[in-house]
Amino acid sequence: MTEHVLAAIDGSQYAESVCDYAAWASLALNAPLSFVHVVDNHSDVPAEQNLSGNLRFGARERLMKELSELDEQRAKVNREQGKLMLEAAKARAVEDGVADPIIRQLNGTLVETLVELEKDIRLLVVGKRGETAHHASGHLGSNLERVVREMHRPMLMVPKAFKQPEKVLIAFDGSKTARKGVEMLARSPLFTGAECHVLIVGAETAEHRSELDWALTTLRDAGHQAEGAIRSGEVGDTLQAYEQEHAIDLLVMGAYGHSRIRHLLVGSTTTAMLRGSRIPVLILR
What we know:
Largest sheet: 10 strands, mixed
Structural class: alpha/beta
Order of helices and strands: EHEHEHEHEEHEHEHEHHE
Distance between the termini: 20 Å
Shape: elongated
Radius of gyration: 22 Å
Strand content: 15-25%
Oligomer: single chain
Number of strands: 10
Helix content: 40-55%
């Protein structure tokens, strides 16, 4: 089956940006575009055994019936809202130039649904936070963190506003996944014409210099303008400082490696790195 660019949308303020980045990726990759909205009808009402407290005989039964009816009403509203969001996403993608976007509404939980769909995903596009996430600027929804950890397909996490990437930075550590990332960056139509940067966070050593030279040569041989650096310091702060200095539009990171960069995506600092980024982050598996 043809692999799709899959955009997961909800009612958050990131939805329009998700649509735009997904449309851009779909056109650049010449891949079909699908939008999915997951309806999670899990009730937040306390469990039945906690409602018996001081209720008199008969009152508990009536309450449970009313709660059940409310759940049914809420599920219906959620489905209708989802349909409207999907139709709006499709219309926006068509305006962006995508010929025939596919829309799907599915029941379940977000993470499990995306994992089930991933065999047909070429690139997953999601917003930095979902509609149920806390609105504090530093908060990253637990659903998104779980998606990062459990998905095995490339994932593009996007900010609120769309900007077509012109300068791309790859966080490079010489690992197998990072080398695959450089090779992907070099040949992917997603980055045609983009200026490519490579950053190694660590000491200036002969090994690091050799790794950087390999990455830059690979990119230049593919026709890219490429430059890079080796910098010491804390990984997250060093990456963000480089992003700001060079006006980087998109950050590429591998989810697995052998250096400190690895721990940004499989260790306790995952959330800190992702929530601090003001630009899209492409996470490679």
